[in-house]
Structure formats: structure tokens, C-alpha cells
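hey can u check if this looks right to u? its 75 residues, i copy pasted from the old doc so theres a chance i mangled smth
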Amino acid sequence: MAALLRVATHPLALGRAKGILQEQRSGIYSKPPKHKIGAGQSFFIMSVFAVAMLLPAGWIMHHLPEYRKKSRPPH
């Protein structure tokens, strides 16, 4: 544990970590979007997302009785 602490507080390790954090920050922009997304596009994307999330759950719930029948071991 002490060796891990020494490595984590080593000046070269800290410099490398700061460099990584600075590289990640360079991709963040604070400008307004170049293309505005309309209400229709937003509704379409949210609908596709909702269907993608709910469809597998609906499939499983619809076929739950079949799954229950198959999972019983014979006595």
C-alpha cells in the first residue's frame, strides 16, 4: 500500500495525470451550437431512444409465461 502511495504522489506521475486532464479539457467548447435542432427532430430522436429502451423489456414481459414454463425442472 505504501508503494502505491509513493507512486501516486511521485512528481512525474502527477505531471502525467495533469497532462491527461488538460488534453481532455481541450475538447470542451463553450460556444452555441452551429446547427439548431428543431422540435420535430428532438421528438423523433427521443422517440427512437424510448423505443430502443422499452422494446427489449416489453419483449421479455410479453414472453414471460413461456420462459416460466421452460425453466421448471422435471420432478
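The two ends are 53 Å apart (CA to CA).
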